[in-house]
Amino acid sequence: QLLSSGQRQLLLCETLTETVYGDRGQLIKSKERKVFLLNDMLVCANINFKGQLEISSLVPLGPKYVVKWSTALPQVQVVEVGQESGAYDKDNVVIHNAGAKKHAPAGQSSHNKVYLGPPRLFQELQDLQKDLAVVEQITLLISTLHGTYQNLNMTVAQDWCLALQRMMKVKEEEIHSANKCRLRLLLPGKPDKSGRPISVMVVFITPNPLSKISWVNRLHLAKIGLREENQPGWLCPDEDKKSKAPFWCPILSCRMPAFSSKALDLQLGAAVHNPVQSSLLGFSAVSTSLPQGYLWVGGGQEGAGGQVEIFSLNRPMPRTVKSFPVASPVLCMEYIPEGEAADTRDSQSTPDQSPASPHPTVCLGLRDGSIAVYGSVDAGTQCLLTCKSPAMQPVLCLKHSPRYLFAGLQDGTVAAYPRSNGGLWDAAGQPTRLAVGTGPVRALLTLEETLWASCANQVTVLDATSLRPQQTFEAHPDAEAGVTHMIKAGSGVWMAFSSGSSIRLFHTETLEHLQEINIATRTTFVLPGQKHVRVTSLLICQGSLWVGTDQGIIVLLPVPRLEGIPKITGKGMVSLNGHGGPVEFLAMALSTLAPDVLKGDQEEEEEAEEDKPAELDGPQPREMRKKGILLQYRLRSTSHLPGQLLSVRDVPAGGTPAHAEEDGSIYEMADDPDVWVRSRPCARDAPRKEISSVAIVSGGRGYRNFNAESPRRGGGDADSTLLIWQVPLML
């Protein structure tokens, strides 16, 4: 019944194990449930394996599902283990554990001490913290000893402290691990007698960490998908909605001003994403945040200075972390990843040599002819280098190769800056000037062995190493239609032009013209009668070609994902969310989740069965456990320390026996505390498949909704605005 509604769509469905805990964290019961995520509600069903026999075939019908509960999506909250504080209004909400016979005593809930299993881990962590405080006091007492004792001294006492700190870190990792397969949902229940709302906590165990990430991510996006601007967010002229796959279109997740300064009338120039993996992000945060890293947005005022705004994307909504002026408006940007920027052997250079840059950098091309190279946000975003273009020509586009930074200039030349020893560009020497034509070089494209540069309606192909021109071809029959954008897709290059509403596809090897698409036939679906459309931005992302136009409309065209010829076959779709003016840029933010997010599947399975021994990872037999844990960190033995051995037993002839090696490595941690504290992936972890997080950013004047029924149809403010679309994590 719930699924048969025409408007409903099934986004995700999986068999999860519902677990019920007692007030001491003990597992009371667990049962398999079928959980369905629809586009507007979450449904949990009992699995009825007893299905009726079909007399004709004598084959039992598959499992039948009986709905246990269903909740509207906006009322479902994901609450992580240990992160309860900000998830709900604790003063006005009483939480009950779903399925538990006895609720926590009234006095307990009033003190916010809600037992949401497994509290055993938290109790053990608190015990370790208390024990550390005691051992620190013992250490102070040991420092007052008059005698010198081999196995009772400050070295040993400090080792105890280090060992306890390590155990606390391991326990925190266990708590982190408990989140990996535990999906805890806060659902609305019936109010109590006094009228206070009751929230019900339901806990599911997912089959693996990937499943948990998938549920949190899809729940998050499905809720955003219910917002007015996404109902609908795209117009598909030729296809039946019922045949659509889950999350068939990108979801507009946020819109916001591009610049924090309201006083200046700033125009947008360009944007790039600087991906940064943050191990500090919690397990659930990576499932709901935008692609990790920083979004750099540049622009400026006509005839005045420029501005750069940097946003942190390590959250569901971007946040400005830095904003600074530059000498002239920013016209283009290029992000250069780590490793490409320098040979790491050069990074040992002394500070007074030229600045080495093995770290990621962002290059800005300015209207006044300068190129500014900045370090990444984590390194303080200092300006590492400034180059001047020959004859101070405005820098219209930037692209890099392993050997050069290429700048397309206003006067028809390309300046090629070679890498210096430090990995940055050689600012002292004159760049190599490559004459391409007489008009501005508006677009550059670096392929494996060639550089493509456009001037008017011609494209020149140069050898990327020798910088010699190989050939020039005409990209458009109209001499006035200058090539403004070039983007590679498989074995083809899509191009956009300064006039006309077409985009054209060329083969990378033969340079043959393969296809032409008129964008105006798509935009008329939302703006009938508007035939004069110009393409102002292009982007390829995960099998789709994004096309931004001068009317603020964004069109999405499907291209084959394979490395073949990316000819467009479908009609595509048009976004009902766009800008009040031209789409100045389309940028992609892409990051891969840190592999250690998926570490420890085996531990999670043990944790899910509530079967794990209290002693962490140590594979110790049961009878050994009662003896306790050997509290040591670095010391394998005390025999090398001065003083006599404090012992009831006689010292053996061979001196003090060293502790067995396995005693000191119970936790299989690296001995170096720096490595250990930073929690780097252990060498024994097999490499796992990466998870890709993708968002698409458009920039333009204001926001406009093109939906005919929308009350917000029309312009709105004219400030430079960013729109950000998300697609589900690629698992």
TrEMBL record:
Residue span of region Disordered: 341-360, 599-623
Pfam family, any one: PH_19
Biased amino acid composition, Polar residues: 347-356
Keywords of this entry: Guanine-nucleotide releasing factor, Phosphoprotein
Listed GO CC annotations: cytosol
Protein origin, superkingdom: Eukaryota
Compositional bias ranges of the Basic and acidic residues kind: 611-623
A Gene Ontology molecular function term of the record: guanyl-nucleotide exchange factor activity
Protein's GO biological process: actin cytoskeleton organization; positive regulation of stress fiber assembly; SREBP signaling pathway
PANTHER family for this protein: RHO GUANINE NUCLEOTIDE EXCHANGE FACTOR (PTHR12877), RHO GUANINE NUCLEOTIDE EXCHANGE FACTOR 10-LIKE PROTEIN (PTHR12877:SF16)
Protein name (Swiss-Prot/TrEMBL): ARGAL protein
Species of origin: Glareola pratincola
Taxonomic placement: Eukaryota, Metazoa, Chordata, Craniata, Vertebrata
